[in-house]
Amino acid sequence: METISFFDGRKIPLERHKVRIVQQLTLLPVEERLERIKEASSNLYLLHNKDIFLDMLTDSGVNAMSDRQQAAMMQADDAYAGSESFFRLEKTLHGIFGMDHFLPVHQGRGCEKILADLLVKPGDIVPMNYHFTTTKAHIERCGGEVIELICPEGLVYQSDHPFKGNIDTQALARLLDKEHDRVAFVRIEAGTNLIGGQPFSFANLRETAAICHKHGINLVMDASLLQDNLYFLKTKDEECKDLSLREIMRAVADLCDIIYFSARKLGFARGGGICMRESELVDRLKELVVLNEGFLTYGGMSVREIEAIAVGLEETLDFSVVSQGPEFIAYMVAKLEERGVPVVTPAGGLGCHLDASRFVPHIPSEQYPAAALAAALFIAGGIRGMERGTLSESRDADGNEKIAEMELLRLAIPRRVFTMSQIDYAIDRVTWLYENRNLIGGLRFEHEPKILRFFLGKLAPLSDWQEKIAAKFASDLPGSL
Ligand SMILES: *Cc1c(COP(=O)(O)O)cnc(C)c1O
Questions:
Q1: Mean pLDDT of the chain
Q2: Which domains, from first to last, does the chain contain?
Q3: 1-38 pLDDT tens trace
Q4: What number is the average pLDDT over the span 34-47?
Q5: Among residues 51, 59, 222, 237, which one is catalytic?
Q6: Dihedral (C-alpha) 112, 113, 117, 120: value to the nearest 10 degrees?
Q7: Would residue 181 show up in a list of annotated catalytic residues for this protein?
Q8: Catalytic site includes residue 33
Q9: Atom 3 of ligand 1, residue of closest alpha carbon
């Protein structure tokens, strides 16, 4: 693994790309940021992108593309059926994962929908390291139940455990011994999204696969964040450190029966798909793809995006490409830690995760502390993060709040998008907000959707705390946007 050291000893991640297309950004004055958050009912999904300075909502569909991806898009073969673009992507995926079949699907949750439709019946359980919002919604829609078996370290905010995304394999073995008849499949998520982008280790994946296969149960991997998990396998896992990324990718795939992914993340474009081995499920899944997504050679994706995914997946095997995200995140996490700001450690993939349980301990979970923090940070810096806490959960059948196991504000760092000074700006505004954290107050719902309420819900602050933050900012940084 090549490294570049600075002569003066500083440890700064160095971009291994140059910027050739730019998008102008606006930073609204703080008074306008306050107005915009009020118009958006304190839900950052409801903001207009033009009013946002740094969009750290997600890495989904907003990673920077390479010149080679853009070039490939120009040679897309537009055809409803039999497109060469599809065959190129199929060949790439076969080369990377070595699986027999590839079914194209328009995005990650589309894969989850058709896998749940086919595999989950009422009363079934789906054990997994940790749920993702859309995964859980689809499993529950089909009458199934998600059983989370994350290792105990996974839910510890500050830790030095390198593989907090591991499944508790002893608990999995016990569960499968007892309940294997009810298990639709076992799911392992690479780079666990909701608990800080934390990876699993290779040994953990191997043990998980052995337990599943002993009972003839399929191991399904959600590979949406596999590129980050690959980076951590290469840099932290003794078993993998001498392997190339291609070898690690294949060794991971060899343990799985089905791999699905959002190509809005894996592959740096927009789309998704399911890769699987020969089995009687293939034909039934193909029918569901044709019914829900589109013909088998595009699956709801634009052929241009299909070309971009094929090239993006090859680029994912380049260490200087996959290291950029985690290294920027590690830089941001380290700087915030130095300033005493509570963050999830170790730094994971996907983004820098603020620990809202310690940032705003005075706000109870029922008042959505991480969502309040997200609104406050937009006022303080025009930065849009994403709540990953109680607001992202749904109520139980009796209407009671399900309190999240972690209250996080995720500041996603889409790959190759932000510059170092923008990251420094974000660190500065988070630090300012931390100094002024006592001003932040809670939120309540004004309109609460039943499904995935965080996307479209409308909220209101419980007092005039948002005005107070804007006023304090204006007095602390007079004349600054
Ligand atoms: C983003 C994501 C999904 C859903 O993918 P979309 O393309 O946004 O529908 C599923 N699983 C994980 C782990 C994700 O990060």
A1: 97
A2: 30-59+321-476 (3.90.1150.10), 67-318 (3.40.640.10)
A3: 677 899 999 989 999 999 999 999 999 999 999 999 99
A4: 98
A5: 222
A6: 40
A7: no
A8: no
A9: 108
